[in-house]
Write a structure and sequence with these properties.
Blueprint (H helix, E strand, L loop, with lengths): L8 E5 L4 H12 L3 E6 L4 H9 L4 E5 L5 H15 L4 E4 L14 H29 L2 E6 L12 H21 L4 E8 L5 H4 L10 H5 L9 H11 L10 E4 L7
Parallel strand pairs: 1-2, 1-4, 2-3, 4-5, 5-6, 6-7
Helix pairs in contact: 1-8, 3-4, 4-5
Length: about 250
């Protein structure tokens, strides 16, 4: 494995399982030290990173809560001194038709899927500016481009993620910081397997994707590692669809 991220410090939200865990392990394989935050148990990811010989900080944290994020960022700075790479991966995807949604539903999904990225960026961008180097990677979704019912709240947050990526990239490029987004298709994780989305596992790949198999977290980690490295130093403000050819944009 290449060491493109040797001794970098990567902060990853939603790192307990699925996409966040897979990215954390790939970054560790490429030489990064890792800080992971999640409300779910982090022991498994923590142990796997240590087994790769890298340092790790695991913190139970609600990424949509300003106080939690402030405390987490202080722990990161105390442990590592800085954050070089920020991966905003925390998210939920409730399925609910618009007629059934309440304003509380709307606020909750925006808090977790959108506000969290803002709070983490506010916490760590100042240090990136001071260093003159940084990478921010936001997880969005190809559902933004699809006709799909029951996802008004979710897709609205994914549109916000894309807008946040583009606008923040415009402001931070001059400081040596790139900001990009990755848009996966439906990914098989423990969370999606336990949700109504599991009904789409057998249908979606053959109906909509050019590569007719279900996506797994490992399909995203190469792109995530590339965007975090110096190999992607001149790429910013982009949303890269990693979805087996589902969308063209």
């Amino acid at each position: 494995m290449s060491q493109r991220l040797k001794d970098k410090v990567a902060v990853i939200t939603g790192g307990a399982n699925g996409i966040g865990k897979a990215i954390a392990l790939r970054y560790a394989e490429e030489g990064a030290n890792i800080a992971i935050a999640d409300l779910n148990p982090l022991a498994e990811t923590d142990a796997a990173i240590k087994a790769l010989g890298r340092r790790v900080l695991s913190v139970k944290c609600d990424a949509s809560n300003p106080s939690d994020v402030a405390a987490f960022s202080e722990k990161v700075k105390a442990a590592f001194g800085r954050c070089d790479i920020l991966v905003n991966n925390a998210g939920i995807y409730p399925i609910k038709m618009f007629d059934e949604m309440t304003f509380e539903d709307w606020k909750k999904i925006f808090a977790i899927n959108v506000d969290s990225g803002f709070l983490l960026a506010k916490a760590f961008v100042p240090g990136m500016k001071q260093a003159g180097w940084g990478r921010i990677i936001n997880l969005t979704s190809t559902t933004f481009w699809l006709k799909i019912e029951g996802f008004t709240g979710y897709i609205s947050t994914k549109a916000a993620n894309i807008g946040f990526t583009r606008s923040l990239a415009s402001e931070l490029g001059k400081h040596g910081i790139t900001v990009n987004a990755i848009a996966p298709s439906l990914v098989r994780t423990a969370t999606t397997e336990a949700s109504p989305l599991a009904e789409m596992f057998e249908v979606l790949p053959t109906m909509l994707q050019s590569i007719p198999r279900l996506q797994v977290p490992q399909d995203l980690i190469g792109t995530a590692a590339f965007l975090a490295s110096d190999d992607a130093a001149f790429i910013t403000g982009q949303t890269i669809a990693v979805d087996g050819g589902m969308v063209r944009h």
